[in-house]
UniProtKB/TrEMBL annotation:
PROSITE patterns: FEMABX. Belongs to the FemABX family. The keyword Metal-binding does not apply. It comes from the Bacteria. InterPro entries: Acyl_CoA_acyltransferase, FEMABX, PG_Glycine_Bridge_Synth. Transmembrane segments: none annotated. It comes from Nocardioides conyzicola. Keywords: Acyltransferase, Cell shape, Cell wall biogenesis/degradation, Peptidoglycan synthesis, Transferase. This is Peptidoglycan bridge formation peptidyltransferase VanK-Sc.
Length: 381
C-alpha cells in the first residue's frame, strides 16, 4: 500500500465489487468480513465498497454496511474487521478523515470499525501458567510475550481523532471478538505444528485415526447436500451448549456468496464414525489467513474424538494452501476457574497457538444527538 504524501492526498470514493475483489486478492491477509461477498451475506443492510486512492492508485479498500436508525434515514456505517488500509503508517488522519467525510455524505450519523491491528500476544506456555494460577483472572494480568508498538500507536491516534472504544462485557465485544486464538503456520511443517500441540490433542488425533473417524471436505456445489446434516448437528450443539443457532438459510447464503467469489473461499468438513456424523465445521480462507468459522459435534460418540480429527484436517489443509495463520476466532480474556468460558480457551490452547488481542471496535460519532439516540436504542433491545 502506497502512503499518501502532501502532494498526493488520499481520496476516498465508492468502487465496484470487482475492483474491490481485485484489491483483496493482492493482499496477504484481509478479513472475510471485508470481502465484497460478505455484503450478500448481510443483505438486510445497505452496503458500499470503498476505495482509498493515492494519485489514481488504489491503496486501500473496505466494505461498509449501513445500519439504519429506526424511523430516520440516517445510518451507522460499519466496517467489521476493517478497513484494509495501511495501519502501519505513522499518521492515520490522512486515511481516516476522508473516510469519515465520505460516510457522513452518505447519511451516516456515526462510523464503527474494527481495525485488524494486534496489540498484544500471549504464547501457550504463558496462558497455561495463567490458567493454573488462582491469582490470575484475566489475560491482562499476565505479561504478554509480545506487545505491539504499532497497536499502541493506533489506539493513541484513534483517541486523539475522537474515536471511542466499544465496551467489552464478559470478555466478548458487542460485535467482532477483540480476543482470538491463532496457530501460527508460516514456515512450519505439519510435523512441527503437531509437535507444538499438547499431549491430549496429539493423543486425541491419534485415537480418532485408530477408531476410524473419516474426515471429508467439500467445496463448491458439493457442500449443499451436506449442509443440512451440518445444520442438524449444529442445532444439537446449540441446545447442548446453550447458545442461539443461526438458521439453515443463513449458512446457505454464506456458502453461496463466499463460494461464488473464490472456489476455495469456504469449505465444509465432516467427521463420520461408522457412518454417523460426529463432527462438522465450516472453514474460510482469504489469502494466507484461514479461519475456523463454525463447528458442531455430537454428544454421543465423543470418545472417538471427531472434533480433534476435523480440526487437524483443517489445519493440514491450511498449511497445504500456504496459510500464515490458522485462526480459531474468539475467546474471552477471562482465565478464572469459575468462568463458564474457561473450557473454550482450554480447548484452543491445546493447539499450541497463541492468544491474540486486537485493538477492538471503535465508534466515531458524526452526529452526536443521533448517535446517542442509537446508543439508547441498542441498549434497550
Amino acid at each position: 500500500m502506497t502512503p499518501p504524501t502532501a502532494s498526493t492526498p488520499l481520496v476516498v470514493r465508492e468502487i465496484g465489487s470487482d475492483e474491490h475483489l481485485d484489491f483483496v486478492r493482492r493482499q496477504r491477509s484481509v478479513s472475510f468480513l471485508q470481502t465484497p461477498a460478505w455484503a450478500r451475506v448481510k443483505a438486510e443492510w445497505r452496503h458500499e465498497s470503498l476505495g482509498w486512492f493515492a494519485g489514481g492508485e488504489l491503496v486501500g479498500a473496505g466494505l461498509v454496511l449501513y445500519r439504519q436508525l429506526p424511523k430516520v434515514k440516517r445510518y451507522l456505517a460499519y466496517l467489521p474487521e476493517g478497513p484494509a488500509i495501511d495501519w502501519d503508517v505513522e499518521d492515520l488522519p490522512p486515511w481516516l478523515r476522508p473516510m469519515a467525510a465520505h460516510l457522513k455524505g452518505r447519511g451516516a450519523f456515526g462510523v464503527r470499525m474494527g481495525p485488524p491491528v494486534v496489540t498484544r500476544r500471549w504464547d501457550t506456555a504463558t496462558v497455561k501458567a495463567g490458567i493454573a494460577d488462582p491469582a490470575v483472572r484475566r489475560l491482562g494480568d499476565l505479561a504478554p510475550t509480545e506487545r505491539s508498538h504499532a497497536g499502541a500507536r493506533v489506539v493513541a491516534q484513534l483517541r486523539d481523532l475522537g474515536w471511542r472504544p466499544l465496551a467489552v462485557e464478559g470478555g466478548f465485544a458487542a460485535g467482532q471478538p477483540q480476543f482470538v486464538f491463532q496457530v501460527p503456520l508460516a514456515g512450519r511443517t505439519e510435523e512441527q505444528v503437531l509437535a507444538g500441540m499438547n499431549q491430549l490433542w496429539r493423543r486425541n488425533i491419534k485415537k480418532a485415526a485408530k477408531e476410524g473417524v473419516e474426515v471429508t471436505s467439500y467445496d463448491g456445489v458439493a457442500i449443499d447436500p451436506e449442509l443440512k446434516h451440518f445444520h442438524d448437528l449444529y442445532v444439537h450443539t446449540a441446545e447442548r451448549d446453550h447458545f442461539t443457532p443461526r438458521p439453515l438459510s443463513y449458512f446457505r447464503t454464506m456458502v453461496e456468496a463466499l463460494g461464488a467469489e473464490e472456489p476455495d473461499r469456504i469449505r465444509l468438513y465432516t467427521g463420520r464414525h461408522e457412518g454417523t456424523l460426529v463432527a462438522a465445521t465450516i472453514a474460510i480462507r482469504v489469502g494466507a489467513h484461514a479461519w475456523y468459522s463454525y463447528g458442531a459435534s455430537s454428544t454421543e460418540k465423543r470418545e472417538v474424538r471427531g472434533s480433534n480429527a476435523v480440526q487437524w484436517q483443517m489445519i493440514r489443509d491450511a498449511i497445504a494452501a500456504g496459510a500464515d495463520v490458522y485462526d480459531l476466532r474468539g475467546i474471552t480474556d477471562t482465565l478464572a476457574e469459575d468462568d463458564p468460558h474457561l473450557g473454550l480457551i482450554q480447548f484452543k490452547v491445546g493447539t499450541g497457538g497463541e492468544a491474540v488481542e486486537y485493538v477492538g471496535e471503535w465508534d466515531l460519532p458524526l452526529n452526536k444527538v443521533l448517535y446517542k439516540a442509537f446508543d439508547v436504542y441498542m441498549s434497550r433491545r
